[in-house]
Specification:
heterodimer, A: about 400 residues, alpha/beta, Rossmann fold, 7-stranded mixed sheet, 6-stranded mixed sheet, 14 helices, about 45% helix, about 20% strand, globular, B: about 325 residues, 8-stranded mixed sheet, 12 helices, about 15% strand
């Protein structure tokens, strides 16, 4: 059924349709509306079988979910930015314990300086934590991905994080098609855990593992990630068959078949990029777009298939590693290391800086690129401050 | 009931003395010889097991107790046991309790346990949150007054002037920083939770009775068990029970119970002793008796004992500092 809804409300409805038994709530901008919405839906009877727990920190939010999921109940929480960092110890713990918790990450940058606006720095901080990480491009996809996420997580026994751009998606009103409860129930059966905390069958979970066994544990976690590539695709196919909608999967192609240059991005910015590419292609250029849905596991083989005949790849990335460069472009380069293609890194939208069509168009048409382009950087301010910074740390030397 | 005389104690048979004791924590674990925490945990969880016919789930914080009982592929627990992290055991237990409620398994009781490091320091936020929500969890703190698992560093539970690896005394420093003290039983009382008790491995029937009482109550409960550590405190491994008893007798570790924020019972000290007798028994206080010791050092600790005796009404008489 079609609704005009705020992204957070759409996600809240999707989560409730998945019937989690335990939802842990702690506020942080821009995620807060999601847990508010779920709380309201639980209390108004849309999810009468749900426990809604107001906790005292993000660390507690994910820890409560760890406890309930380990006891055999479908569990959910949501966070952003500093909240993700605050719970980071539990983020690694949840995947190490193979608990299929689903968490929404309302993407926001990380301070200092404190800043509540969108980029992907928070998601990148969790990129090696053993979670499946899926990025939504639209609110419809955010909604659909949550329904798929519980299925993927529970099949893989791997926690799954749905990344949605803060404000751009979480606070934007869009038309969304919300499935009926019976449809979601058909797609997502009740959670039946293999092992759980049960007094009739006592087990110990969370043992200390020595060097004799630890490496194998990590190896198997890696194999699980690479196997998840297939499950993510299968679940997306199944979703399409039932809901007649393309959502999820590993990546989405847009005009890539004859493209000379392909732009790769994650999340909502793909929409703007597609608009720019349409405009450029109308005037004879040959651009394509790959919008990456699955960031972890990283779909290297699928990317190689799409990009094998492309001359240039431009990665538009909303986060970068200080001292080296973009995360995503490095990973794309690694995936394409056997293909003769130039990979260009365009760092954009940091701390919520606007990514405009004009800036993108100008950048895409450039013949030569810096090693890293900082899209929309205020060059004059940056240059002036850089000079004084350098004077400070070089002291009397210059 | 509480145990105020030896006669009272003898009237009760402990779970531990029973031939069919549950042995929730089996022998063969890697705890040190003379470990007070291993004894305290076995007695507490055995008592809870018996009281609930084995319907318990135990959540364990990181620390000595976790490390010496679950070294893969071995495991010393005969109960469902879940270890997540150092600072989150109360929150994990909240999640377990919520899941049990969802599954209609409310008859299964949830226990979270940890040492003083996880309880007083790193897990304080989660503990307070669990108390505040009055979650259906019994939290047991095994207090050995320092971070023993990492090699005896100061915690929020370390007594003033005690020597630890991070408070080594020297000519101008007398051990553990001057401090106001963090009293978690009192902090728990301030939350108004239904039940709080302190207990000691020197009085096992009393410990078992308090756990038995706590496990039967719904809502957040807190039991604080004093568990001396031969390694960290510096005394022979055969002396653990004796040291625990001296702590009670001098008033430094008061035995009491509180309900909904109010003290309801306390155990009278039978033969009050000066704190010096307790302090002299442990190397962690040896510097208080050396030739460089300031005259008022022991008085600081005697004053704490005296105020305990007064506050918890432990005795008719108070020793002069």
């Amino acid at each position: 059924m079609l609704y005009q809804l705020e992204g957070s409300q759409a996600i809240a409805k999707a989560v409730v349709l998945c019937r989690p038994g335990v939802v842990c709530a702690y506020p942080i901008t821009p995620q807060t509306h999601i847990v508010e919405g779920i709380g309201e839906l639980i209390r108004s009877g849309d999810l009468s079988e749900g426990e809604f727990i107001n906790v005292e920190s993000e660390m507690a939010a994910l820890s409560v979910a760890i406890g309930s999921q380990a006891t055999g109940v479908r569990s959910y929480t949501a966070t952003s930015s500093q909240g993700l960092l605050y719970m980071m110890e539990a983020v690694y713990n949840a995947s190490g314990m193979e608990l299929p918790i689903v968490m929404t990450l309302g993407n926001r940058t990380i301070g200092a300086p404190i800043n509540i606006w969108n980029d992907h720095s928070d998601a990148m901080a969790a990129r090696d934590a053993g979670w499946i990480m899926l990025f939504a491009e639209t609110n419809q996809e955010a909604l659909d991905l949550h329904i798929q996420a519980f299925k993927i997580a529970e099949k893989m026994l791997c926690p799954t994080m749905i990344c949605v751009d803060g404000f751009i998606l979480t606070h934007a009103y869009e038309r969304v098609d919300i499935p009926f409860q019976e449809e979601v129930d058909e797609f997502l059966p009740p959670y039946v855990p293999n092992i759980y905390m049960d007094e009739r069958n006592p087990i110990a979970v969370g043992a200390m593992v020595s060097p004799e066994y630890f490496m194998e544990v990590r190896y198997l976690a890696h194999r699980k990630q690479t196997d998840a590539l297939e499950i993510i695709s299968l679940v997306s196919d199944e979703f399409k068959r039932q809901f007649s909608r393309d959502s999820g999967g590993l990546l989405r192609k847009y005009h890539t078949d004859n493209a000379k240059t392909v732009v790769i991005a994650m999340g909502s910015v793909s929409g703007t990029i597609k608009d720019v590419v349409d405009e450029l292609n109308a005037s004879g250029e040959m651009f394509g777009v790959v919008s990456l849905v699955s960031y972890r596991p990283f779909p290297s083989a699928a990317l190689r298939m799409v990009l094998k005949n492309v001359a240039k790849v431009i990665v538009v990335e909303k986060a970068f590693a200080l001292g080296i460069g973009g995360f995503l472009s490095q990973e794309v380069e690694l995936a394409l290391k056997d293909i003769d293609v130039r990979v260009i890194s365009v760092v954009a939208g940091i701390g919520g800086r606007s990514i405009t069509r004009n800036l993108l168009k100008e950048c895409f048409l450039k013949r030569t690129h810096e090693q890293i382009t900082f899209l929309g950087l205020k060059e004059d301010i940056a240059a002036e401050k850089y000079t004084s910074l350098k004077l400070h740390y070089l002291g009397g030397m210059i | 009931m509480s145990y105020s005389t030896l006669k009272d104690v003898e009237e009760f048979t402990t779970v531990q003395s029973s031939h069919d004791r549950p042995n929730t924590l089996t022998s063969g674990h890697r705890g040190c010889q003379g470990c007070g925490e291993a004894l305290g945990a076995r007695c507490a969880i055995d008592a809870a097991h018996r009281e609930t016919n084995g319907k318990i789930i135990v959540v364990n914080a990181t620390g000595c107790l976790e490390v010496f009982t679950c070294y893969f592929p071995e495991n010393s627990w005969n109960v469902p046991w879940l270890h997540s992290l150092f600072g989150n055991a109360p929150a994990v237990a909240t999640g377990v309790a919520a899941a049990l409620r969802r599954q209609g398994r409310d008859d299964v009781r949830v226990i979270a346990q940890g040492g003083d490091g996880s309880t007083f320091d790193i897990g304080m936020g989660c503990l307070s949150g669990m108390f505040d929500r009055n979650d259906d969890v019994l939290y047991i703190c095994y207090d050995n007054q320092a971070y023993m698992n990492t090699g005896v560093q100061r915690s929020g539970a370390t007594p003033p002037l005690a020597r630890t690896a991070t408070t080594l005394p020297n000519k101008s420093y007398m051990g553990s920083d001057s401090q106001t003290g963090k009293n978690v039983p009192k902090i728990a009382m301030a939350h108004g939770i239904p039940y709080i008790a302190t207990a000691s491995i020197a009085n096992i029937p009393d410990l078992e009775e308090k756990v038995r009482r706590a496990i039967g109550i719904h809502g957040a409960r807190y039991v604080h068990i004093h568990v001396p550590c031969p390694l960290g405190w510096g005394y022979p491994t055969s002396e653990t029970i004796k040291i625990a008893r001296l702590a009670i007798q001098c008033g430094l570790f008061p035995l009491f119970e509180a309900e909904h924020g109010k003290q309801v019972r306390s155990t009278q000290i039978e033969d009050l002793i000066p704190v010096e007798e307790y302090l002299r028994s442990q190397k962690r206080f040896a510097h208080l008796f050396g030739k460089n010791a300031p005259a008022d050092a022991i008085g600081v600790l005697q004053n704490i004992a005296n105020s305990n005796i007064e506050l918890y009404r432990l005795s008719g008489g108070i020793l002069n500092a």
